[in-house]
């Protein structure tokens, strides 16, 4: 892989590593030893790639993108709950623009294809005033190469676009887009953000079930996000509940109240 990105500041300090446990661990160590704002760690494979809620992240070599951006969060930034949404928008816009593929954001941390299969996941971990923004994107995997349990729920960019892609071009596109969104977000300018989310929101109008970290569930119609980044869920009694953390699955695609502008 090439090691130069065409951004202004994000990823100008970049470490490309062959094998790591997790790019999150590498980025944290780099921050502790003086990484600059915008430092990025990219790995070819991870032996202990992790997702949200202690899940593992499938990280085979030679195929995908695994990266962590170390970003210093300024006091002017909006609530941190909006950051994973921002990163999702940045990835989706980059893939739409550069690879002409209709992808969407799925609250809170996913980028999905039109059929809901997951293309990329976002993991944000905090270290003091740093956000370690981890992105895992399936780029060149074929369906055959996915583990059986992921086959129905995951997809790669290659499968959507119909050809193998240069992982470096995908990385560059994502970093470019993230850099531009971060620059607005960091100074508290969220107005373009809500509009972008609404245009890409895969869940909007769908009947969903939210699984909470304690194992309980709640059902309702997804109604976009609040200013804190929380999901707005309209319950069957008409009340709108704000959901701060949870895993969302779509209950029945044919119950959508309002179609998505795809
Ligand atoms: C999720 O969907 O649960 C989030 C997945 C995040 C995976 C990425 S891959 C790069 C970075 N390093 C990790 O160990 N995890 C994130």
List its salient traits.
alpha+beta; 24% helix; 5 helices; five-stranded antiparallel β-sheet; binds biotin; 29% strand; disordered C terminus; globular; 262 residues
Walkthrough of the structure:
The chain has about 260 residues and is of the alpha+beta class. Helix content is about 25%, strand content about 30%. It contains 5 helices and 12 strands. The protein has helices at about 25-30, 85-100, 155-160, 165-185, 190-200, and strands spanning about 15-20, 40-45, 65-70, 105, 110-115, 120-125, 130-135, 205-210, 215-225, 230-235, 240-245, 245-250. The strands form 2 sheets. It has a 7-stranded mixed sheet, sandwiched between helices. A hairpin with a 3-residue loop joins strand 4 (about 105) and strand 5. The protein is globular and about 55 Å long. The structure holds biotin. Biotin binds near residues 24, 57 and 121.
Structural class: alpha+beta
Unreliable spans are 254-262
- Give the bound compounds: biotin
Intertermini distance: 33 Å
Average pLDDT works out at 93
Radius of gyration: 18 Å
Total number of helices: 5
Summarize the topology.
Layout lengths: L13 E7 L2 H10 L6 E8 L18 E8 L10 H17 L3 E4 L3 E4 L4 E10 L2 E8 L19 H5 L5 H20 L4 H10 L6 E5 L5 E9 L5 E4 L5 E4 L3 E6 L10
Parallel strand pairs: 1-2
Antiparallel strand pairs: 2-3, 3-7, 4-5, 5-6, 6-7, 8-9, 8-12, 9-10, 10-11
């Amino acid at each position: 892989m090439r090691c130069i990105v065409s951004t202004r500041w994000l990823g100008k300090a970049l470490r490309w590593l062959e094998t790591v446990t997790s790019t999150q661990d590498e980025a944290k160590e780099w921050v502790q030893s003086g990484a600059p704002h915008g430092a990025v760690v990219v790995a070819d494979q991870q032996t202990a790639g992790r997702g949200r809620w202690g899940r593992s992240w499938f990280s085979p070599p030679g195929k995908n993108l695994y990266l962590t951006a170390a970003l210093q969060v300024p006091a002017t930034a909006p609530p941190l709950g909006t950051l994973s949404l921002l990163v999702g928008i940045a990835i989706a816009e980059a893939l739409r623009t550069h690879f002409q593929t209709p992808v969407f954001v799925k609250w809170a941390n996913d980028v999905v294809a039109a059929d809901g299969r997951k293309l990329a996941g976002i993991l944000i971990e905090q270290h003091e005033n740093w956000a370690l923004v981890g992105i895992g994107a399936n780029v060149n995997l074929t369906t055959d190469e996915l583990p059986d349990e992921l086959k129905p729920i995951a997809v790669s960019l290659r499968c959507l676009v119909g050809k193998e892609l240069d992982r470096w071009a995908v990385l560059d596109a994502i970093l470019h887009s993230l850099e531009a969104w971060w620059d607005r977000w960091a100074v508290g300018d969220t107005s373009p953000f809500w509009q972008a989310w609404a245009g890409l929101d895969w869940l909007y109008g769908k009947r969903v079930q939210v699984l909470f970290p304690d194992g309980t569930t709640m059902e309702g119609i997804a109604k976009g996000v609040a200013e804190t980044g929380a999901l707005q869920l309209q319950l069957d009694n008409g009340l709108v509940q704000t959901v701060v953390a949870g895993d969302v699955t779509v209950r029945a695609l044919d119950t959508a109240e309002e179609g998505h502008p795809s």
